[in-house]
Amino acid sequence: MLDNLDHFKCLKRGTAGAINIDPLQRGGILTPEAREAILEWADGYSVCDYCTGSLEEIQTPPIKEFVREALPQFLEVDEVRISHGAREGIFAAMHALCQGGETVIADGNAHYTTLLAAELAGLKVELVPASEGPGYRVDPGGYQEAISRARGRGERVAMAVLTYPDGNYGNLVDPKAVSEICTDAGLPLAVNGAYSVGRMPVSAKSLGADVIVGSGHKSMASSGPIGIIGATEELATRIFRRSKLVPKKELEMLGCTLRGAGILTMMASFPAVVERTRRWDEEVEKARWFAGEMERLGMDLQGDQPHGHDLMFFKSEILYEISKTAKKGRYFLYRELKKRNIFGIKPGLTRQFKLSSYQLSREELETVLSAFEEIVSNHPKA
Length: 382
Fold this sequence. Notes:
Enzyme class: transferase
InterPro entries: PyrdxlP-dep_Trfase, PyrdxlP-dep_Trfase_major, PyrdxlP-dep_Trfase_small, Sep_Cys-tRNA_synth_arc, SepSecS/SepCysS
Distance between the termini: 48 Å
Protein name: O-phospho-L-seryl-tRNA:Cys-tRNA synthase
Strand content: 5-15%
Function: Converts O-phospho-L-seryl-tRNA(Cys) (Sep-tRNA(Cys)) to L-cysteinyl-tRNA(Cys) (Cys-tRNA(Cys)).
Largest sheet: 7 strands, mixed
Radius of gyration: 22 Å
Keywords: Protein biosynthesis, Pyridoxal phosphate, Transferase
């Protein structure tokens, strides 16, 4: 079996020059500077040549300046560390700040990894329910009700998590309102900013977040998996506490996190990421225009109206009806888009799907719209 391994040598995606509309990837597309950095630092633990025991203390390349100064200023938070992703940041916060058997409050649109993190940390979860479609809204007041429900059962509530925005519909719940409820209840608030940090202006201070996490590979033009976690000075002493057995290492980070190309791509992209967050209003305007054109074609936008994020969730009965008689059935939409060099909607989805307009030009989005219009007009419905 090990005599024929040549098929491992050619690992091309086949998407060169394509229009990528995948919400998971739009904010993670590398900048030219990051592509250069990944070649320079791709070998193994490349940055460890310069490490004296703590990743965030490395001065060449300037990781210390990036982690200790640039990222805290960017997020307006006291301390930041690099993580393997947003989910690892959420787990670190839960594991450090909560005790087994306690309860975490989370929004009903929370990413599944929030639930996994709580389960792994030995915690219970009380969800703030989202409304029915098409809005799928989470009312900030629901946090007060969820806290009361859990405490009414005699549970000890330890913290709350808000997904901002959620990864399903791109809804943006008022974080300040949630923060005020948590403060009154004596709870720290962790904001999961996997789809906001690096895409839009985000200030932990303005949001009222005690902990904030972000995703480099989703939203900070980085080669993943990589993320960041920031915390107030008070909570940072607990989340970033050092080992008693290996005093130079932080327990929740398991000593060190990203030791190679990932963190260098995040650093190389950082100037461009900072700049693009200043143009967020343009991205929202573009997303609203695109959503309106999609609805004109018979696709129904779910979530916030007017929409406030580039991540969009559409329901489409018209494409579902076409799939009943189309060649390849429910895979027809993926194949039709692929023929037009458009990628990002998962194979097999027609009745509902997500996409993103982030960092795409008006011309590219018009190409996507034309593709959908052709697909609808050229296929008979069942």
